[in-house]
Amino acid sequence: MKKANIIFSIVFVLVLLIGCQSENINGKEKFKAIVLENETTTLIVEPIKGANELNNAKKIIVLTEGATLIDQNGKERMIQDIIPNMEVEIYYDGAIAESDPPQIQQCQKIVLFDK
Q1: 77: which residues sit within 8 A by CB, 6+ positions away?
Q2: CB 58 within 8 A of CB 33
Q3: Is the Cα torsion angle 110, 82, 86, 63 positive or negative in sign?
Q4: Which H/E stretch holds residue 38?
Q5: Which of 44, 47, 61, 107 could form a disulfide with 54 if both were Cys (CB 3.0 to 4.6 A apart)?
Q6: Among candidates 45, 57, 42, 62, which has minimal Cα distance to 105?
Q7: What's the average model confidence in pLDDT over 87-91?
Q8: Is 49 in contact with 94 (CB distance < 8 Å)?
Q9: pLDDT at 31 (0 to 100)
Q10: Do the beta carbons of residue 34 and residue 50 sit within 8 Å?
Q11: Facing residues of 37 across strands?
């Protein structure tokens, strides 16, 4: 009976772990977006069609403090380099605060794409 309980517990935990997985890269979620506003410490972005984040809202506030800013070639950039209508890729921890508009408070990296 003990063996059955142990096996059941292990299977249960494995099912939970598999069910809780999400698509991410190195522990980070990512999505592409168009910058609507750059307020230096935050960006207001609109996820590009097809991004799962678009299901949450048309606009998302991204806190930029502590985020690495680079261009598509890996060159370090400054927050002032981000301008409205620029395409960016946001890497974050997967959490989006349920506010209006939603907020990403743990952004690790922002990749800038030149048009």
Answers
A1: 69, 70, 71, 112
A2: no
A3: positive
A4: strand 29-38
A5: 47
A6: 62
A7: 97
A8: no
A9: 94
A10: no
A11: 44
68-71 sheet: strands from edge to edge: 68-71, 107-113, 87-92, 29-38, 42-47, 60-63, 103-104
CA–CA separation, 68 and 78 (whole Å): 9
The two three-digit tokens of residue 71, written as one number: 């261009």
The half-sphere exposure of 85 on its side-chain side, counting CA atoms within 13 A, is: 1
Report yes or no on whether pTM surpasses 0.90.
Answer: no
Candidates 3.40.50.10490, 3.60.20.10, 3.10.20.310, 2.40.50.140; CATH matching 24-113:
2.40.50.140
Cβ neighbours around 9 below 10 Å, total: 10
Task: Convert the pLDDT of each residue in 53-78 to its tens digit.
Answer: 877 789 999 999 999 999 999 999 99
Buried b vs exposed e over 33-62: b needs ≥16 C-beta within 10 Å? bebeebeeebbbbbbeeebebeeebeebbb
